[in-house]
Amino acid sequence: MGRRKRRLLMPIWLAIVLGVVEGLTEYLPVSSTGHLIVVGHALGLQKTEANDAFEVVIQFGAILAVVVHYRVMLAGHARGLSKKNKESVQLLMSIVIAGLPFVVLAKLFGHAIKDKLFAPTPVAIALIVGGIVMIVVERVRKVRNAHGLDGIVNVTPARALIIGLGQCFALFPGTSRSMSSIVAGQIAGLSTRTAAEFSFLVGLPVLGGATLYEGYKSRHALMHDVGVASIAIGTVVSFFVAWAVIATFLRYLGKRGLEPFGAYRIVLGAIVLMVMSR
User: Mind listing the pLDDT tens digit for each residue in 173-213?
Assistant: First the structure.
């Protein structure tokens, strides 16, 4: 009787690397999905249901990082909702309005996009285009001396709709949900910092829903091909890295804006295109 073939689980070191990449890039305007695709390709990670699901599931760590970072504000608004506080109700409405377009389009076209566009070349193109858009928007704002309105209270339902429509471009891998929502927030008249903070908050239901759905749908493949240990470690790593990134990113925005991230995207996209063309 032949030996039973041993299951090939994801190595712990690879789970750590992907957790670091997820935590570093989820809330920066550089595309976490794009970086995970490129890094996974470079490390020889095969495109399987389990590996694709793992890259989504470890977002839970980044989601938890936002909850912990904004725990005081979120608790305050939760109490405000129970008292029907105007600002708290408006924030909840704005988050729902901003998240709906993305969720609807993801449900309609998500599988087709994943099958056709989750590859290094489309990611590289999206990185370059997104970088150019960021730089152009930042320079136009500087010329017009348009700093935007500061404070989450200024995120009205109308501005949230603009952000939600802009966020839909993030369905194209490499675009970045953070980038598209921040830029849309700037265009809607918000300061870069406020647009970034609202982007973090919108990510809670959007990323949370995607994580729960993907985790449940691919639970058997995850357990069989990735393993509990790798899932747990990747999630914990993404949590701590994302928590450190959030505070650092907000401080950095106040000093430098988005232009450096735009330049980074263009350079990285060009490198990926050159490597892939060989």
Answer: 889 999 999 999 999 999 999 999 999 999 999 899 889 98
**What is the arithmetic mean of pLDDT over 23-27?**
94
Q: What is the pTM of this model?
A: 0.88
Q: How far is CA 71 from CA 67, 74, 75, 82, 151, in A?
A: 5, 5, 6, 17, 17
End-to-end CA distance of the chain: 46
Task: Pinpoint the alpha helices (H) of 118-227.
Answer: 120-143, 157-167, 177-187, 192-217, 219-221
Rg from Cα positions in the chain:
19
Q: How far is it, in rounded angstroms, from Cα 271 to Cα 260? A: 17
Looking at this protein, which amino acid is placed at residue 93? Answer: M
CA–CA dist 127, 25 (Å, integer)? 13
101 and 168 Cβ atoms separated by less than 8 Å: yes
Task: State how far the Cα of 226 lies from the Cα of 54, in Å rounded to an integer.
Answer: 8
